């Protein structure tokens, strides 16, 4: 479980062809302006705690307490040692630049502690935008940006490999950037402009290219992931003059050393440690090794802690690769490496204090305290030591301050035995659904990728009950409550022991559906509950009809007239009324017999638009709002028989409702869309006649089109779903 992220913007099969490197123009750097919002709001995360893949952690070698973290889809962070919190650094990235919220690599300058560099670009696919480099002179408080003409892949295979960005150890003005399809780039003006560097390796089809850059004294080493690992096929190169690159002589070969994943340099012993695997990871690795190179004489030594391939207690094979690699800056010969993709025996960290002659696994004696983030038990009794461990970092000022990233959190220790999440302030959930109940203890229930559904008793602490269980979901696909019976909530998603559940206490506890349609196992989709909770409708994608249950999911009946793939929406007042928008034909369908049959209503609406949302206004029967990416916002007050376009809105992605303003008779309307030319978060207190922008240029969070809702009990409070920065909630100040 949690070995992949099926709900995130999925990486398409195949890779882009290598781009020509004859010329590589870049856009000049530009300052990121911070414009004030039209209405002042304070924005914070609804705390979940981590929840995503930490792909890199970097302690600054010259400043005690200064560290940075990168994520695959959720931006970069700076550690504030005074408060013990991570500070987000890339929330200013806006809707049009959503592809830049994935951080491919980061770099610091040992000689200039305030300088920070980020290489951004989530996908290297043809449909994604090009990458960019951000550079800061104040540790990420402000940025200048250079747009590249190449693509980066922070959420693709190999995203947990070493830093592909490096300040040259000879010259702080010179930077190196390794790409996946376009070789090695070089900047001589601190990242403002980039040109291709002469590099002997030829990009291949795997989409890995340069997997790591590391300084060893005055030399720079580069890992190469497009080699097949056979003898004579180099995958590790170096330059000693900053101009010419050569294959490192004597380097290991074979399947166990096919991809250099991470590397770290012991400056006292003058030895470079390299972890290898037969695939870049984080998935798909079955073999690996660890080697060290003595840079003074070029001697290679294999120091693999445990060779993959042994037997497991259940009769299987102990297959895995090696991932993270960190050296102790204060103690020569002290190194920590991680296994990766070791599902049967569970991944671990190995530590040596004698240069790799002997190793100790840190997992067996580990005491894990996840009281700060209970979801890490995944509905069980105990947390797991980790998976997807490719980011490992040692504090250069404290040999016992060790951290490692997983697919869901960042663990840290200060005694090599007791471990706890170190994720305060770091939120990376990809959020799909939001509910704010009109009554009950929780003001928020969220549905997310990878971590299912959470019941938020407090917005300032990770939910005490962790992930919703009975059953546990990896990714939530549907979440709904009965408007006239708000304690009744249903959810759907990807689960190993069932794909749907219901709750009669507002989402605190759950009971699995007694049965489910066959397609729920392969295509669980959105779900709706009638106004009084007596009827459930469940959809399963464009190839399947919808299904109906009138007994809490004990039995299900096919609805032949329900438009395939549509999202069912319940009327909040009339328990017999449901609606569904058929995007393939641009037609609104309605049911007035409790979901048994559906008939066509308004037609001629935008069709073929995969990004749409149909929302029913609370407390009103037949009051529907249709958000269409390509055709703005439409409203019906006759149950979908007809729609009128809302002229104040040029583009609409998601819409929700909250408590009405003082003196207003209609709920506040919240929108992620475009009013004029700016895609932003808006509020209307007059039924969408006028809008007020409520976020600002510093709080944009990339793509925010999945869900938005106001709080029905607190005027002005709004919850926004992000694709990588968790649930953001704002309140007027």
Task: Write a short abstract of this structure.
The protein has 733 residues and is mainly beta.
CATH topology of the largest domain: Methylamine Dehydrogenase, Chain H
CATH architecture descriptor of the largest domain: 7 Propeller
Low-confidence spans: pLDDT under 50, at least 5 residues? 1-37
CATH-level-4 superfamily name of the largest domain: YVTN repeat-like/Quinoprotein amine dehydrogenase
Query: Helical proportion?
Result: under 10%
Assembly type of the shown chains? single chain
Measured between the Cα atoms of the first and last residue, the distance is: 42 Å
Strand content: 35-45%
Question: Can you give a write-up of this model?
Answer:
With 733 residues, the chain is mainly beta. The protein has 2 domains: 39-421, YVTN repeat-like/Quinoprotein amine dehydrogenase (Methylamine Dehydrogenase, Chain H), CATH 2.130.10; 429-559, Methylamine Dehydrogenase, Chain H, CATH 2.130.10.10. 0% of the residues lie in helices and 38% in strands. The protein contains no helices and 59 strands. The protein has a 5-stranded antiparallel β-sheet with strand order 1-10-9-8-7, with no helix packed on it. A hairpin with a 7-residue loop joins strand 57 and strand 58. It is globular. It starts with 29 loop residues before the first strand and ends with a strand. The model is unreliable at 1-37 (pLDDT under 50).
Topology, please?
Blueprint: E1 30-31, E2 41-46, E3 54-59, E4 67-71, E5 76-80, E6 85-88, E7 103-109, E8 112-120, E9 132-136, E10 144-147, E11 165-167, E12 175-178, E13 184-187, E14 195-196, E15 210-216, E16 219-224, E17 236-239, E18 246-247, E19 259-266, E20 271-277, E21 288-294, E22 299-302, E23 310-311, E24 317-318, E25 321-327, E26 335-340, E27 349-352, E28 360-361, E29 367-368, E30 392-394, E31 402-405, E32 410-413, E33 418-421, E34 431-435, E35 444-448, E36 452-456, E37 473-482, E38 485-495, E39 500-503, E40 511-512, E41 527-529, E42 536-538, E43 546-549, E44 557-559, E45 568-570, E46 578-582, E47 587-591, E48 599-600, E49 612-616, E50 624-628, E51 632-636, E52 644-645, E53 651-658, E54 668-675, E55 678-684, E56 692-693, E57 708-710, E58 718-721, E59 727-732
Parallel strand pairs: 29-33
Antiparallel strand pairs: 1-10, 2-59, 3-4, 4-5, 5-6, 7-8, 8-9, 9-10, 11-12, 12-13, 13-14, 15-16, 16-17, 17-18, 19-20, 20-21, 21-22, 23-24, 25-26, 26-27, 27-28, 30-31, 31-32, 32-33, 34-35, 35-36, 37-38, 38-39, 39-40, 41-42, 42-43, 43-44, 45-46, 46-47, 47-48, 49-50, 50-51, 51-52, 53-54, 54-55, ...
């Amino acid at each position: 479980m949690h070995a992949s992220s099926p709900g995130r913007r999925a990486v398409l099969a195949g890779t882009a062809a290598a781009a020509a490197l004859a010329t590589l123009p870049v856009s000049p750097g530009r300052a990121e302006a911070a414009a004030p919002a039209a209405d002042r709001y304070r924005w914070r995360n609804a705390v979940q705690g981590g929840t995503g893949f930490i792909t890199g952690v970097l302690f600054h070698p010259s400043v005690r307490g200064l560290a940075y973290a990168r994520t695959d889809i959720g931006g970069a962070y700076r550690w504030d040692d005074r408060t013990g919190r991570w500070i987000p650094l890339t929330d200013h990235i806006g809707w049009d630049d959503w592809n830049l919220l994935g951080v491919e690599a980061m770099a610091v300058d040992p000689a200039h502690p305030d300088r920070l560099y980020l290489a951004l670009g989530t996908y290297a696919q043809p449909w994604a935008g090009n990458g960019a480099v951000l550079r800061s002179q104040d540790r990420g408080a402000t940025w200048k940006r250079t747009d590249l003409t190449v693509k980066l892949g922070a959420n693709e295979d190999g995203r947990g490999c070493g830093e592909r960005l490096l300040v040259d150890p000879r010259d702080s003005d010179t930077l190196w950037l390794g790409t996946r399809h376009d070789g090695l780039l070089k900047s001589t003006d601190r990242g403002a402009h980039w040109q291709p560097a002469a590099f002997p390796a030829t990009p291949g089809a795997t989409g890995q290219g340069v997997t790591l850059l590391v300084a060893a004294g005055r030399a720079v080493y580069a890992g190469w992931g497009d080699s097949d690992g056979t003898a004579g096929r180099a995958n590790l190169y170096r330059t000693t003059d900053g101009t010419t690159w050569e294959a490192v002589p004597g380097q290991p070969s074979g399947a166990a050393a096919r991809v250099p994943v991470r590397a770290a340099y012991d400056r006292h012993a003058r030895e470079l440690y390299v972890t290898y695997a037969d695939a870049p990871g984080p998935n798909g690795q079955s073999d690996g090794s660890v080697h060290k190179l003595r840079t003074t004489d070029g001697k290679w030594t294999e120091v693999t802690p445990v060779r993959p391939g042994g037997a497991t207690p259940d009769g299987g094979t102990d297959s895995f690769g090696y991932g993270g690699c960190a050296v102790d800056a204060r103690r020569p010969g002290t190194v920590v490496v991680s296994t990766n993709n070791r599902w049967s025996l569970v991944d671990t960290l190995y530590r040596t204090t004698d240069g790799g002659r002997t190793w100790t696994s840190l997992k067996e004696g580990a005491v894990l305290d996840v009281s700060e983030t209970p979801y890490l038990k995944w509905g069980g009794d105990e947390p797991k030591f980790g998976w997807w461990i490719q980011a490992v970092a040692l504090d250069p000022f404290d040999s016992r301050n060790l951290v490692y990233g997983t697919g869901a959190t960042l663990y840290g220790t200060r005694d090599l035995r007791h471990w706890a999440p170190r994720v305060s302030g770091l939120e990376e959930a990809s959020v799909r659904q939001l509910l704010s109940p009109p009554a009950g203890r929780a003001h928020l229930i969220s549905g997310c990728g990878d971590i299912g559904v959470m019941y938020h008793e407090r917005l300032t602490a990770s939910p005490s009950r962790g992930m919703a269980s009975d059953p546990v979901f990896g990714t939530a696909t549907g979440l709904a409550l009965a408007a006239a019976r708000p304690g009744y909530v249903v959810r759907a998603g990807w689960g190993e022991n069932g794909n749907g559940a219901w709750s009669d206490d507002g989402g605190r506890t759950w009971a699995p559906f007694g049965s489910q349609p066959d397609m729920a196992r392969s295509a669980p989709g959105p779900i709706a509950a009638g106004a009084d909770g007596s009827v459930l409708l469940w959809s399963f994608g464009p190839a399947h009809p919808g299904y109906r249950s009138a007994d809490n999911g004990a039995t299900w009946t096919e609805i032949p007239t329900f438009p395939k793939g549509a999202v069912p929406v319940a009327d909040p007042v009339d328990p017999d009324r449901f609606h569904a928008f058929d995007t393939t034909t641009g037609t609104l369908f309605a049911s007035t017999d409790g979901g048994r049959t559906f008939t066509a209503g308004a037609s001629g609406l935008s069709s073929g638009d995969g990004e749409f949302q149909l929302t029913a206004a609370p407390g009103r029967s037949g009051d529907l709002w249709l958000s269409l990416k390509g055709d703005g916002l439409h409203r019906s007050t006759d149950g979908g028989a007809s729609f009128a376009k809302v002229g104040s809105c040029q583009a609409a992605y998601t819409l929700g409702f909250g408590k009405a303003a003082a003196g207003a008779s209609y709920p506040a309307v919240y929108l992620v869309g475009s009013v004029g030319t700016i895609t932003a978060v808006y509020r209307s207190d007059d039924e969408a006649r006028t809008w007020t922008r409520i976020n600002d240029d510093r709080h944009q969070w990339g793509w925010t089109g999945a869900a938005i809702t106001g709080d029905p009990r607190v005027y002005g409070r709004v919850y926004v779903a992000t694709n990588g920065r968790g649930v953001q909630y704002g309140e007027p100040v």
